[in-house]
Here is the input.
Amino acid sequence: MTDSAIYIDTRIVCEEDLDELNHVNNLQYLRWTLKTASAHSKRVGWTPDRYREAGTAWIVRSHKITYKLPAQLGDEIEIRTWLEELDRVSALRKYEIVRKSDERLCAMAETRWVFVDLHTLKLMPIPDEVREAFVVSDR
Here is the structure.
């Protein structure tokens, strides 16, 4: 983690990550972003169990991924994430997926998350204790 707003996760591209062109499969990028978002939430004290105990959850409203450079077997990849917006019921999380050896950008992504009541799955305001755990970056 470089500062309190940006969370960094690292992966090594393995065989299971690859598609028929020997590049990282498009779905793998999505998996990496979701896992990194969850790890960031855990880092600031909001684990899946804590959300469940509060009767709340984040769910995805939308994803957008722009691919720039294919990652390949053995590449060390950094998935950098931060919150760019945090409004009443949603958050916009941004990602950069970077090949660590040369700092080249493999992909950019963003996910719009909405905060819901776990039992009704209806939108609800983000509680102050959740809001205060995350730093919004103006990156």
Observations:
- Helices lie at 26-43, 48-54, 128-131.
- The mean pLDDT is 95.
- The two ends are 15 Å apart (CA to CA).
